[in-house]
Amino acid sequence: MSALRDAAMKSKAWPFEEARALLKRYEHKAPEKGYVLFETGYGPSGLPHIGTFGEVARTTMIRRAFEVLSDIPTRLICFSDDVDGMRKVPENVPNQDMLRQHMQQPLTTVPDPYGEYDSFGAHNNAMLRRFLDTFGFQYEFISATEFYRSGQFDQVLLRCAERYDAIMAIMLASLREERQQTYSCFLPIHPETKRVMYVPMKEVNAKDGTITFDDDTGKEWTLPVTGGNVKLQWKPDFGARWAALDVDFEMYGKDHSTNTPIYDGICEALGGRKPNHMSYELFLDEGGQKISKSKGNGLTIDEWLTYASTESLSYFMYLKPKTAKRMWWDVIPKAVDEYHQQLKAYPTQDLDQQLNNPVFHIHGGQVPESKMVVSFAMLLNLASVAGAKDAAGLWGFIKKYAPDASPETHPDLDAAAAFALRYFDDKIAPNRTYRLATDKERAAILDLRGRLAAWDGQADEESLQTACYAVGKEHAFDPLRDWFKALYEVLMGASEGPRFGGFIALYGVPETIGLIDKALAGELVG
């Protein structure tokens, strides 16, 4: 452990950098509460999206890195702000007319449009927990509804009433003059309509722990700030939650980063210690727009897991968290193959390199062996020509390429074969466009066919790739990539793919000759 800890103290991997900064928080003594608390927040106004998962995945990576560096126990809380009022109806859920009747009510008061749970908030919370459980995260879930109603938040809410002026001073400095006139950090929940009220306070009574306000009919109400009768505006809620739970670390998206001084200031005004925090760049959809829960753009967690393993998604989350990343269907195959490349490299690396390898952080140091003897990109190409209906249909080709492999001994490859067929059927096949070869390409492809027909040596990937290169050079393709582009467009209806020699080795020399014959006869076009 000492060698591992020493190496971790110097590692440039971002989870260790964040963990070392957190360790400095307690370099003089351990926390009085006996553990370091990591928190992630979630607003269940819509179905959970991949960005939500990313916060938990990345926070878990930092938590594991911290546990390498320190013996201080840790906890991770996933907090759902489900008292938030429903400000708009998500576009990707059913029964929208019904939902519109409950605008501005807390999400745990709004009926579930799916009819499965007690409320829309409960439905979205259950989805989030199911997603997180799929990945085996170790976390504790807290519902804001329960947090407010049970009394766990009462002490801090009473402190908010006592220090109302200090909180308001922080908030008003960040608001436009018009907004300042009506703003209050307290949002009462109307006793009759159950709606979250955005109204100015007539009085905040710190002694009694109450607020007084007029509703939109002019009727005056006085409510205790405790017991779930009010909620805090979202920015004060952030800082107050940190103070109430004594949070040590929380990350959030770049769109929150300008609010960091507000969150910190409110936490400190309530007697808390501001946590360490990290902001990450946002995920973008196909058109470069921010992924939104309410719009339902971008990929969902379920959609990713339809076509690839959980580990591939974790790998994608590890990469450059402070760089905005486009997240669309075409990133999945690349993430799968890069993840397995890192797995294969891990046993050959020294300790410093291993600590900088994403798979160390994905697996918490317990890194498995990759059995992917065929890349995902190659499996997609095989799926395009094999006519297989299931993974078993691909294994006949895989066995010839890797005789020692089987579904039992290579379960990750077996799973990848099934994923590849599904991905091909849904995302590639509908968009394939074959074309006829030009005269120059036809002559080169016929040359390649002749060399394959006369092939007498071992049909290994490198030898076949060398033959492909030789044909392209002899037929004066410049740049040479135009030759391989032609092969893929004519034979597979795609403009790119993995090394063609590897494809021939996997698919088989006779089978590739048959594919060439079909393409040159025009049978693949139309």
Structure in words:
The chain is α/β, with parallel strands linked by helices. The chain is 47% helix and 10% strand. The chain is built from 24 helices and twelve strands. The chain has helices at 2-8, 14-24, 50-69, 96-100, 120-134, 144-149, 154-162, 164-172, 177-180, 234-245, 260-269, 301-307, 310-318, 331-345, 351-355, 358-362, 376-386, 391-401, 411-428, 439-453, 461-474, 481-491, 500-507, 509-520; strands at residues 36-42, 74-80, 140-143, 186-188, 203-205, 210-214, 220-224, 230-232, 249-253, 276-280, 283-284, 325-326. Helix 20 (439-453) runs antiparallel to helix 24 (509-520) and helix 21 crosses helix 23. The longest helix has 20 residues, at 50-69. The protein starts with a helix and ends in a 6-residue tail after the last helix. The model has no long low-confidence stretch (mean pLDDT 93).
